[in-house]
Each structure stands twice: as C-alpha cells, then as structure tokens.
Amino acid sequence: MVKEFNESHEGVTATVRDDRTVPLRQRIQLLGRNGIFGLILVMLTLGLFLKPRVAFWAGLGIPISFAGMFIILNLWGITINVISLFGMIIVVGMLVDDAIVVGENIFAQAQRGVPPLKAAVDGTMEVLAPVATSVTTTIMAFMPLFFLVGFLGQMIWQVAAVVIFALIFSLVEAFMILPAHLGHSRALDISREPGRIRKKLDAGIAYLTHRLYGPTLRLSMRHKWIVLTIPISAVIITFGLLKGGIIGFTYFPYIDSDRIPIGMSLTVGSQEAETERLLQRIEEAAWKVNDELSAERADGLDVIEGIQRDLGSGAGESGAHAGTVTLLLLDGETRDMESFLIANKVREAVGPVPEAQKLSFGGGGRFGTAVSISLLGEDVDDLRHARDLLVAELRDFSSLKDITDTEALGRRELEITLKPKAASLGLTLRDVAGQVRKGFFGQEIQRIQRGRDEIRIWLRYRPEDRGSLGFIDAMRIRTADGRSFPFSELAEYSISRGVSVINRLDRKQEIRVEGAQADATEDLPPILAEIEDEVLPRIRAEVPGIDVSFEGQSRNQSREMGSMKVAFPMALMGMFLLVVLVFRSYAQAGLIFSLIPIGILGAVWGHGIQGLQVNMLSLYGIIALSGIIINDSIVFVDQINRFLREGRKLQDAVYDAGIARLRPIILTTLTTSLGLAPLLLEKSRQAQFLIPMATSVAYGLLFGTFILLIILPTGFLAFNSLRLTFARMVRGNSEATQESVEPAVHELSLPVVD
User: Fold this and answer.
1) What distance in Å separates the CA atoms of residue 480 and residue 478, rounded to the nearest whole number?
2) What percent of the chain has pLDDT over 70?
3) Which terminus of the chain has fewer Cβ atoms in its 10 Å neighbourhood, N or C?
C-alpha cells in the first residue's frame, strides 16, 4: 500500500514508521519454530524408550489430538495467536503421557504371552481408571485459568482451552484408537529379534532401572524417615533463596517495547509555543543519543528510527500545555538493548526541565505503574503536605525515576474580596465580579443576521483599557442607584491558581504519587516494602488522618491474586476428591497431593537456574503444574495397590511398582519437559513474556518427578507404619500386618453383599 501510494503521488513520500504486526509475526514464528522442535524432541524421546512401532502409534496421538482441538477452537472463535500457540507448546509433550502408559502396559501384557487383541483390551482396562483420573486432574488444574481477572487473566484462558480440549481428544485416542492400532499391528510381535541399536538402548534402560534406581530405592525404603526429611530441607532452602533475593520475585514480568513515550505537561495556561519549544528540545536530545548509540554498534544502525511529536496531550493531561514525544525504536531482536536504558540516556541528555510540572520518560507499562500510591483524605492542605513529603522521600530512591503526582494546577484565577464599603452600598460579590468580567471579557449585546451568517456583537473595554491587571483598580463599579465608585474603594483582589481536576477514590479526595523503576528488571516488592515499612510511617506521623492505598501494579496484582485464591483452591479440592474416589483412601490421596509442593520447589529452582524472577505468570504455570505433577503419582500408587491385591508383600509391592513404573514415569516427564525445552533455551526477546510459565511447568515436573521416584515409595511405607501402629495400639489388633492395614488389601476381605 505504501509503495502504491509513493508511485501514484509526487512530492509526497509515505514511510512506515510504526508497524505493530512486526513483533506479532516474530512471536508467532518463534512459537511455531519452538513447537516443531519440541515435537521432534518428543518423538525422539519416545523412540529411545519404547519399541519403534509402539512409539509411532503413541506419537500418533499428537496430530489426532491437535486435529480435534482445532475443530473445537474454531467453533469457539479462538485463532492461532501468541497465547494459543503457547498452549500448544505446553501440551505437545503431555499428549503422549496417557498413550505411553496405555501402550507400555499393553506391550507388557504381550511380553507375558497374552495374544495381541486380548493384550490390547486387558492392558487398556487395567490402567483405565488411573490414566483417566490423571488426565482429568490435569484438566481440572487448568480450569482456574478461565476465572482469572486482570490483564493476564483476559488472555491466559486461551492456554487452558487449548490444553483441555487437546487432552480430552488424547484420552479418546489412548483408550479407543491406540489399542486398536496396537492390537492389529506388528508392534506387539515379541518374537522378532530387536536390532543392535535397540538392544543397546534396552541395555541402557535396564542398567538405569536395576543398577542405579533399584539399589537407591532399596536404600531409601530402609531409611524412610531420614529420606522424608529431604522435602523439609528443600522447603527451608527455597525460602532462603527467595528471602535472600538469590531468586528474585516481582509482580509482573518486564516486557520490552519498541516505543518510548515521553510525556510532558506544563502548568495549565502555558502557551503553545513554550510547550513546542520544550518538546523540540527533547527531540534534539533523543537524536543525539541515537547518534551515540549508533556509533557504538558494529552494524551502525539507528537505534531510534523515528520520532513522533504530538502537541495537545501528554502525561495524562490534555491542552496546549501538554505534549508527547514518542521514540520509535529499532525492533528488539536487532536492537539488543532494553528500551528503559535508552530512555534513561535520553533523560540524562535532556537534563532538568524546571518548567515541566510532569515529565516521564517511558510509559507505565501493560500492568500499571510500578509505584503508585494514593493519598486519601478530606483536607486538601494535609494531602498536599503529605504529597510533598512523599515525593521528597521517593526522589531519594536510586531505584526510582520520574516521580510525579496527579494534582494538576489550573489556570491563574483572580480572587476578589469585598471591602465593608461595598456591603454598605448593597453590592454583592456577584455584582462586582460580574461587572469586572463584562468589562474585560465582554458581554454579548446583540446578534445580527446577514444571509446565512449570524454576527454576534460584544461590548467590552478598549484594548488599551484592559491591557493589564492594573486597570482593575481604576475601573468603576456601578451601584443599583446609578452611582459609580472605583474598584479599589470597594474590593481588593489576589491572584492564585485554581484546580483543574479533583480526583476521588473510596469517597475521599485523592492525590496519587507515582514513579517508575530506573531498572525495570529489578525486583519491585522490596521497593514497595521499604516504602510501606519506613517511608509511610514517617509521613503518617507528621500528617495524621491521611489514608494510603497502593495502586498500579500492586492493585492489579492484588486483583489477580484474589481470583487465584478463589479458583485454585476449588480446583484443588475437586482434584483431591476425585483421587479419593478412585483410591477410596484419604491417606493415599494426601500422599499424592503432598508432592505438589515438591513440584513448586522445582519450579522456583528452575527460575533460579534460568536467571528469571518469579512473577504472576510463574504462578499461573504453578497452577497448571499442580495437576501435571500428580499424574505419575496416581499411576504409581495404583500399581502398588494392584501388586498388593495380587498377594505380594508390602516391601516387594512398593519396590516392584517402582521398577515397573520407572520407564513410563521418566518418559512422560521427559516428553513434557523436552516439549518446552526449545522455548526455555530461547534467547529471543519475543519469548521472554512466556518463558516464566514454561519454566514453572518444565522444571517443576522435572524436579518433582525425579524426587517422586524416591519420596513417594518411602512416603507410602511411612503411612503404612502409622497405619500399623494405629491398628495395633489404638484398635488393639495385635495380628495386624503391613499388608492387612492397606485399603487395597482390606477391600479384598470385605464381605460381598448379594
């Protein structure tokens, strides 16, 4: 379109200065590329751990699930965008989890000599309940994302929609399509001799299972109480990492921008020429900064590609006294420099601007201003005094910049005060002020119609009689009886500035003080904590009766956390009740859910490894993680119960279950984590918005699962010891054994009611 315009017009050239589709296309390409790489890693992992044919049929669930998910999302009106693509990256490794468990169990049945069709049916039915439960708990874990509020909540629900519908179709594929494929294919033909590479892979898996994991599991089972102190120690260490600032925490992630708005407002009533002069000064300083940065670059490209200057609005105000200079930057992928650093350099180049009432270099961001404190009260003088104290305190913070407040001084006003003589003559303030206004501003006395035009005729003093305020004292004021007196005998005047706007919050008058972070990547909560604990008490002591409310990012964080506190516990309760119904044991359900905190610890450590701050998006990832982390636990505990029902001793049942579930547990963990690995390793600036949530899921699952392989069996034995002690000492059942107190064994001894 621009090319066509330039070709068809002479003397005027159109140039693209701001194309918002560039970062959008970059993010979609980035996520598409990472999704493909993740899919390749998932398929390679399946091939390493499973027979090639079993791996192929298990991997087939990915395109089938995506096809079904696309149909539903299209009906719902969800497009392929940055958020939905991110959901696809999260779910790509999860889609094969249920297929892995089902396919591996069917293959195990075939290895025992069961015919292929019967192995497909029996193997599927054997794990139907635990697999369905594990996938359902994951779906329930993503449900709270539909009920979150705020800027992030309005987008993140699409991730939940993608994951949930993909998992539903993967469950259908695992229980109906996969068994049919395996039962009628040569995947279950165990008579064929495996190839040399397959033999080496199987030998490596056997070594991992029986030479590394097996002895470790035996040792842990013998010292179960010592092993169970590991999670407690991990919790203490994690709190220390967070409290010590080694792993940072902030409310919202820093998302860089390719635009820097520099807003400025002068005192209301300032001339347009003065505003334009200062905007021009800022623009010239920005170009000087661009020349310096361009000279430092190897490619010599301009960091500031264009500057847009707008007169009439800026710093939250409108009028001739306000304006904005917007710096249009080189795209972030090429620029390789945070925009706030450029803004800081421009601020230094501009220097002090005493004429500006408000001046901010950079916007408040998508999630609100970093520091925004509302002072509330009824006495405006107290509010202004508290405002001055707070502004002075905040300007001493080296971590803050652009300290402004929302009180805007209005135009200069003439305040008239009557003298006693005016009252004795029967004059009111309205009479005197009205005559002053008519003399200097004028009064419409007639309208004349000339054709289609209407001419208004005004009457007022001549220009030479109203050129300065000094003429007011000399003007004459008429009384009702026709006499006139000099203004100076009847009244006196003073000049002050009025109020252009009155802000109110919670039915109280408000003055809001705001500031931005000098380094947007620093942790925000410590700054706010210092303000709340040290600064505000001093202000309250000097100006009593002032209420304080944190706004901006603090308010948005409180709203989003409030919705999380409602939605997440409800989902967690539903997941817990579902597991209780499957295992018919509160203790086993509690054991499974005790692994969720371990996954959260892994998520926090993952942020430390990645060099990231824990933020709201990280917490969204932890919500999703809570359903994923217990999937393998459900299948693990179900395997122990099945071995107990077969008559095995408790120690043997726990050990054999660990050996039997090791490969599918590692495989499901690796497929999910490796599906996210390309995104975690991505250095692109466009990916930084999504990496915290991916980090929570990938690292939480990775750490949690490997700890699960040790903690879950030892925890199962610890619960059994408590059950046995309770049965012998409280119930007086001296004949109770380790096996008889387990719910799975106890159910076998219950009488059958016809």
Assistant:
1) 7
2) 92
3) C
